[in-house]
Design goal:
CATH topology: Helix Hairpins
CATH class: Mainly Alpha
Order of helices and strands: HHH
Structural class: mainly alpha
Oligomer: single chain
CATH architecture: Orthogonal Bundle
Number of strands: 0
Number of domains: 1
Amino acid sequence: MKHNITQALRDMKVEELQQQVEDLRRALFSLRLNATTSHVKDCSQFKKLRRTIARGLTVLREKQDVQSNHKEHSNE
């Protein structure tokens, strides 16, 4: 399952990936807010969202590094 999530993130464009990470952060914020104001049934969602955000940021960083390396080589 983790592989499917990572592969889906790798298939996205940089802009889509940035939007996905932003949406995941909003979902985590909403989950935290719900946990404060009411009872959350599935507490494992916190961990799952945090890890998915980390995966998205990792893939985003990889793509940005590839783009910056490509620009450096094309300028030479």
